[in-house]
Amino acid sequence: MKITGAFSLGLFIFLLFAIFIGIGLALFGFLINEFIVLVVGLAFALLFCFPLVLHLHGSCAAKKIIKARESAPAHSASAKVFSKTSQIIWGLVSFELSDGSRKNFRVSIEDFNLISESESGTLTYKEYENQLLFIGFQAQF
């Protein structure tokens, strides 16, 4: 499942709202001098603080990875399509480079359908921390 910006913002607002409810409940318990209500309110607020911190940390970490991947240099190499495997929402394509090495890429179904087995051409990709990112394949006719 791909998390969109609107979903992420909605989750953030929900968690913040839940934390404020917990704090409000704790303050209410403090004002009426009821220890149980105070403890329940604090527990409620802390319960929703943990996912909020994880959500914010995950968003920042994901943005760093995306930025690093985008800034990685693109490589181009002469390659031949060695094999293709279709999945439901993506495809796996294995390319054999001119030096004999093979690289496997997860590609979109659109790109998968445009690539034919045993086809030769120019493969463009990025490599970041031992992960390969498919950019494109231009077949030679």
Structural class: alpha+beta
Number of helices: 3
Assess the beta-strand content as a share of residues: 25-35%
Average the pLDDT over all residues and give the rounded result: 82
SSE order, one letter for each helix or strand: HHEEEHEE
Distance between the termini: 38 Å
Describe this structure in words.
The protein is an alpha+beta fold. 50% of the residues lie in helices and 33% in strands. A hairpin with a 4-residue loop joins strand 2 and strand 3 (102-108).
Describe the protein's topology.
Blueprint: H1 5-31, H2 35-71, E1 74-86, E2 90-97, E3 102-108, H3 109-114, E4 120-128, E5 131-139
Antiparallel strand pairs: 1-2, 1-4, 2-3, 4-5
Characterize this entry briefly:
By secondary structure, the chain is of the alpha+beta class. 50% of the residues lie in helices and 33% in strands.
Provide tags for this entry:
rod-shaped; five-stranded antiparallel sheet; alpha+beta; 141 residues; 33% strand; OB fold (Dihydrolipoamide Acetyltransferase, E2P)
